[in-house]
Structure formats: structure tokens, C-alpha cells
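Q: I'm writing up a methods section and want to include an example of the input and output format. Could you take the sequence below and give the corresponding predicted C-alpha cells, formatted cleanly so I can copy it straight into the document?
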Amino acid sequence: MQRPIPKRLPASVHFDQFMQPIDTTLENAPELNSRGHRPLKMDFEEQLRILVYYHLHEYRSAQHLLQALKEDDFARQYIAPEQGIEKSSFSEAINNRGLEQLLHVFKGLQTQAHDLLPNVHPELGSLVGIDGSLIDGSLSMLWADYRKGSKKAKAHVGFDLNRSIPRKVYLTNGKGGERPFVSKILSKDETAVTDRGYQCHRLFDQWQQDGQLFICRIKASTKKKILSKNTVPADSIVFFDATVLLLGTPGVNQSQTPLRLVGYEVDRVKYWIATNRHDLTGEQIAQAYKLRWNIENFFGWWKRHLKVYHLIARSAYGLMVQILAGLITYLLLAIHCHKHYQEKVSIRRVRQLRTTIENELRSMPMPDDDFDESNVKEKKLQFVNAKT
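A: Here is the clean output for your methods example:
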């Protein structure tokens, strides 16, 4: 038997503080309308709160989330729509509504985080790590082609390496090529930092022709024609720095436009970096490429702690809704951790936030028949940094 819906208490102060950066992005957000004559079972703000709550609390399925929205006191009172939400209504909303609004919120939060968080390597320019991440799908996801007996989707993400935050995302099936998204993700004066999977001599020429900057690791076996050499300091990790043409099959994968090639060695591993950044030293090129690992760390943390790839939708539309909600949650955490602790996102702070919200709920009176919401005054709760 379903528990009766109680009279609702004032909103959770700490959860609302966490969600506050979204408020300004909603001012000009596109309106969410019902596609039929029936009224919406939940509006966009309710949909967004549910999705952020899903990622924040590491739920592993839509069923787990919906059970919490019915049975967990906090989720039922502060997150779920006032009349609750059933599985069919939730699924219909996730797979058909909210994508345009989520994109608007994501862009707004990304701008806020960009302006708030410190640029840790201004001397290197604006660096954007670009990479793809596979998402395991189910056989019912017919659109997610990968290989026989396996369905996967792929998220193509641009990651601000200077501030450690996501900035753009695209979704394709698992076979989707990654290289074409470099031009879509990059903005003017930004530098793409990519791994060997993005090596393509024809694209190197095209990017230089289009004025797009890149720092890309290439295979050590790549043949090259040296046009001129740059000076390499004797005590540097850099052992090679020259302007070259990259050679391959003529007319197929042979570069036509000269570029810079930097070779350096760390822990007995040699790295070869192709770039058109001539304003940086060889060691700065090596440093910029090392920062590319931040996007790998982001993917690992994002999957492990926010459960982004535990699917609650099977359609391409619904999966993009889920991915955007995960990115929005991460941006909210980045803003929260910087504002209150001057730190980067960590699972320690996520758990601390959860505990604070739960403790706040325990300290509030439970509603009864004589409960008068107008007489309740919210306390001004403040975050306290724990000394460790």
C-alpha cells in the first residue's frame, strides 16, 4: 500500500543552496510544454531536481530512484512532485521532454563555473581535452550500433583542462567517429589536446587552414621529413623539437602543411606531439599534453561516483537527457566545492553534502494534521569546514 503524501515542509536549505546556481539559468529557459492535452505530471524544475538527486545519491536504476521518491522521507517531501510520479510518467518525460531546457541550463552553468573557477595554467592558453567515452547499452537500443551482439553509445566530450570542468558534449552510436567532433567542440583561440586516436594528417592540414589549434600525440612509428630544428635545452625532458612534414601514403595521409613536432621522455616512455602551437616552449607542450589526463580522470570519477552510465533511459533522446543531467550535477559540485572549500570536486565533499542534507531533515519537525506551513521559519544554515 502506498504511503499517503504528507503536507510538505519548507524546502531543504542546504539542497536549495546547492541548486541555487541553476536559478539564474532558468530565467530565460525555453518553456516546457505538454505534447498533448493532458497536463504535465512534473514540470521541468521538478524533472531537473529528480535527475540531479539521482546522480548525487548514486542510484543504480530508475526503479531504485522511483522507490526512493515514494519511500524516502527527504526524496518524497522535497524532490518528488507533490502528487508523486509513477514509472510510466517518469519514463515518458525522460525519453521525450526536457532536452532543450537541459542544454540551456548546462550552457549557463558552464559559463558560471568558467567565470568562478581559477585558471590554473593561463600561460598555456585555453586548453580543451577532447575524447570519447563508450556507454554500454542493451540489445533493445537498436540505434546504438557497435558490433554484433553488443550495443553501445558514445559520448564525445570537450573538457576545460584549465578549470577541470566539462564544456561541450555530443552523443552518437558506439561506432561514431571521434575526429569530426574536434571542429565542433573547439571555439576560437582554444587548443584541442588529444590522444593518438585523433591522429590524421589530412585533418592536421584542415585544422591549420581553419585556424584551429591542436596538441596531438602521434604514433612513434610515424615517418617525418625535418624542415628545420629548434634549440633543445641540455637538461630538458624534451629531446626533439622541429618543424616537419608528416609522411605517409602520398595523396592519402601525407601532410601538406608543415607543423611542429615535439618529442619528450618521462619514465622511459617517449611521447611524440604534433602541434601548431609555436608560442610555447617544448616543455610547455609536454605539460599541456600531460593535462589531457584530467579528462580521463573525469570520465572515471563521473562514472564511478555519479553513476552516469547506469541507464535510466534507452532512447538516444533519453540517454542525452541523462548525460546532460550528470554533467549539470558535476558543474554544481564544482561550484559548490570551490565556493565553500576552495577545492576541486571530490567524493569526500559529495558524501559530506549528502550527510548535511540528511541531518537537516532529521532536525525538522515532521508534519501532522495541525502543521501550519506559514508558521515555519527557515533557519539560516551555514556550511562548516571540517578540520581534518
